Each structure stands twice: as C-alpha cells, then as structure tokens.
Amino acid sequence: MRAGSILIDEKEIEERFIRASGPGGQNVNKVASAVQLRFDAAKSRALSDAVRGRLIRLAGARATKEGVIVIEASRFRDQARNREDARARLIALLEKAATPPKKRIATKTPPSQKRKRLQDKSRRSEVKRGRSRIAADDGAD
Questions:
Q1: At residue 64, does pLDDT exceed 90?
Q2: CATH class of 2-98
Q3: Structure confidence at residue 140 (pLDDT)
C-alpha cells in the first residue's frame, strides 16, 4: 500500500471483519460487513521516527498506548467498500503525517502598528477618565 512517499507492506496491516451496527434489517445480524483495520505504527519499518510521532499524535483516540492505529469503517453496507474506506482513511492519515509542519517565522510588529496601539490606548483612557465622577469642590465662593 502506498501513501505518498511511504510504502507500507501489506503484512503490516491487519483487517478484521465485524458486524456493523445501525440499519440493514436482518442482514445486519448475519453479515460481518464492517472493517476494523489495525496498523502497528510503533513497529513499522516504513516510517521514520518523526513521521511515526506525528502519525500517532494525529490518530489521537484511534491510537492505542502501544502505538497501534485502529480504524473502524462501517459507513457502507458491503464489506468491500468498507475495506476501501478504511484503507483510504489510513492513507490520508499517513499522508498528513508525512508532511512536516511549517516552521513559524517570527516577525516584528511594525512601528506604525505600535504607535496606533498606543494612540488607541490613550484615546480609550481619555474616554474612561471622562466617565468618572467629578470631585466636589470644597471651597465655598
């Protein structure tokens, strides 16, 4: 199976066919049409350490503590389409993990923006000062 530049051996992917929940009439109780795809990312030789870490982080709740990614597909009513769906979701996850995140480039705040922010602050301060009570004059005329 190929996901971008990553080539995964079919032996590393384990598929189990389980009964799907939901609509399907009597058929749902007899046929195991849902697919549970398991991929052991922690032991896979096709992944670099960086990709492996990103993959497990991206998988979130779909990854076990041991680093096995479990994808369940029961969207369709037939087994073949659910199998394709599970594999497509694994490929999408692998492709997303294969692209390293972009480095953030630190930028300086332009002086004009700093001036504008300070002017806005002083303007706001004047508005608030204008709302305060005026102190009563104690000196009688």
A1: no
A2: alpha beta
A3: 58
